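PROTEIN DESIGN WORKSHEET
SECTION A - STRUCTURE
LENGTH: 285
TOKENS:
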């Protein structure tokens, strides 16, 4: 595996691959890799001839300086994990390589699915996401890019970005990978104390309860929101920011449950903010 920090060196490698007719998949990450990330790398490996994984802790998508400062960074371990998965290139740029001095250009999805939920609770977050994704797509020009379903609204924003700008990249989703008790794997889980880690399982319990209600025939959005809220309320350490039922494309709340929906949650456990969701497709039922 090659580790490259300079965009020019990455461009030379990509040019050589394309001269040989090889396809390229990109897996954008912020590092502190876990099994969820590695599952995306395997999905990329199955879909393309060459795999580029980027690790860049993007400062423009953080709303609080403290959150950026404490975000876990484990570059040596990350490199070992990626090499073991057969990654071809680890792209590890410095901030100046992504945002040159005087940077003043932004990419923003101004409308659904970027409105509400994460867009409301983290103002400017999706502008940072869309901008860095557009820059990485420009640098790598991937045929395929793989994003995790755990960040469901982000995935929807990236799909809208690609569709609106006519970018020649196929977006592949990767299923959420969970711990034994259902907690979605996340780089932020390392910040949880033992008691908080036990409490965090309430996110998946709430999602499972809501899914059970829908599978039993409930189609009223507010009643399913009530199921989510009641289950979250059973955990004293849980402080919900939102627990919603939304359309999978627009991320707007739905009154009647039908078609493709997402149940997204954002919950604080202590000082750690966790997100999770479930995708449900009711088009055949």
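SECTION B - SEQUENCE
RESIDUE ASSIGNMENT:
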């Amino acid at each position: 595996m090659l580790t490259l920090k300079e965009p020019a060196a990455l461009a030379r490698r990509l040019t050589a691959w394309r001269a040989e007719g090889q396809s390229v998949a990109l897996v954008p990450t912020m590092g502190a890799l876990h099994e969820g990330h590695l599952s995306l790398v395997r999905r990329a490996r199955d879909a393309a001839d060459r795999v580029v994984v980027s690790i860049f802790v993007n400062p423009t998508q953080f709303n609080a300086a403290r959150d950026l400062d404490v975000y876990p960074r484990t570059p040596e371990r990350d490199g070992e994990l990626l090499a073991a998965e057969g990654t071809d290139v680890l792209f590890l740029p410095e901030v100046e390589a992504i945002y040159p001095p005087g940077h003043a250009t932004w990419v923003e999805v101004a409308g659904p699915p970027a409105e509400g939920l994460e867009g409301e609770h983290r103002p400017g977050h999706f502008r940072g996401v869309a901008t860095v994704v557009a820059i990485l797509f420009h640098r790598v020009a991937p045929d395929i890019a793989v994003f995790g379903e755990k960040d469901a609204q982000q995935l929807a924003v990236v799909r809208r970005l690609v569709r609106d700008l006519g970018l020649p990249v196929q977006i592949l989703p990767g299923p959420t990978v969970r711990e034994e008790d259902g907690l979605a794997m996340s780089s932020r889980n390392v910040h949880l104390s033992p008691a908080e880690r036990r409490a965090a399982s309430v996110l998946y319990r709430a999602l499972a309860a809501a899914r059970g209600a829908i599978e039993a025939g409930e189609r009223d959005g507010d009643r399913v929101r009530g199921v989510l809220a009641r289950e979250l309320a059973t955990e004293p350490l849980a402080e919900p920011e939102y627990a919603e039922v939304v359309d999978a494309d627009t991320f707007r709340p739905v009154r009647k449950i039908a078609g493709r929906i997402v149940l997204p949650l954002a919950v604080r456990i202590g000082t750690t903010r966790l997100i999770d969701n479930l995708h449900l497709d009711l088009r055949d039922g």
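SECTION C - NOTES
The mean pLDDT is 97.
The radius of gyration is 19 Å.
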